[in-house]
Amino acid sequence: MRPRHYGARSMSAGSDAVLYEVDTTSHVARVTINRPERRNALSWAVMGELRAALARAREDEAVRVVVLTGAGDRAFCAGADLANMAPSPDAGFVELHHSRAELAHLLQDLWALGKPTIARVRGFALAGGFGLALACDLVVASDDAVFGAPEIDVGLWPHMITVPLVRSMPPKRALELMMTGRRVDAAEAERIGFVHRVVPAGELDAAVDELAATLAAKPPGTMRLGRDAFYAVWDLAAEEALRVLHPMLTVTASSDEAAEGIAAFQEKRPPRWRAE
Fold it and tell me: What angle do CA 130, 58, 219 make, to 5 degrees?
């Protein structure tokens, strides 16, 4: 499938390898890894362009939801482009070490985006692509999607994607997938719990659009505060998490959106959310 071009506004985030498109009517941005001939594999340049696209979405007031996907029907993202990520003969150890942090920065950008993210997965989501999908808030997959962390089979270990994996499924299940390198089909992924919905391939776009519309219709300020709070307390002990959440409750309850929501409830009408 070719990337869809939203009529309202579209732009390329640096090159044709990453597309950034915004529908200003639905308030949804679509970020597409556009390397179908390489199964949308990640290179250093692609990761940098993905980060640039996410930064643009973060600052774009027209965007309330971001959909991350891959071009074509063979892969969401098949992981690192090993053939084109070999270290340069002139690259020093420290330089190469810091370059490898780019995926970590990309995952952190997704969590810190301040807006809901949906991974639209068709075909392979492997290695770094697996982690990239699971770093999104929600994952909608076609019934022909395949997930896995096969790094062990080439003498590597999926260090960076350990975090999104253990945050998305029971940790020992994540460890099993990393140790065996086995691939998981969409039905099993949904049973494990890291995929939120599986649909036939022909219904994938409709399902993603429906979910994105649902999220975009929510109050954007409350969504941002709540999502930020969720990620802020993820790894905290209960007592420490509650100390963070208590003042956030006061901030949210004092907002214009809360006042509008409560008034709409009392007046039995739909709320009218203003843009942030």
Answer: 100
Answer for the pair 30, 6: CB distance below 8 angstroms, yes or no: yes
Q: Which of 151, 176, 190, 276 is catalytic?
A: 151
Residue 210 appears among annotated catalytic residues: no
Distances (CA, A) of 249 to 138, 218, 235, 266: 24, 17, 19, 21
Residues 6+ apart with CB under 8 A from 269: none
pLDDT, position 160: 94
Could you tell me how far CA 109 lies from the centroid of its own chain? 9
CA–CA dist 252, 222 (Å, integer): 7
Q: What is the pLDDT of residues 199-239, one digit of tens each?
A: 999 999 999 999 999 999 999 999 999 999 999 999 999 99
Sheet holding 146-148, edge to edge: 75-77, 124-126, 146-148, 183-185
CA atoms within 13 A on the CB side of 162: 8
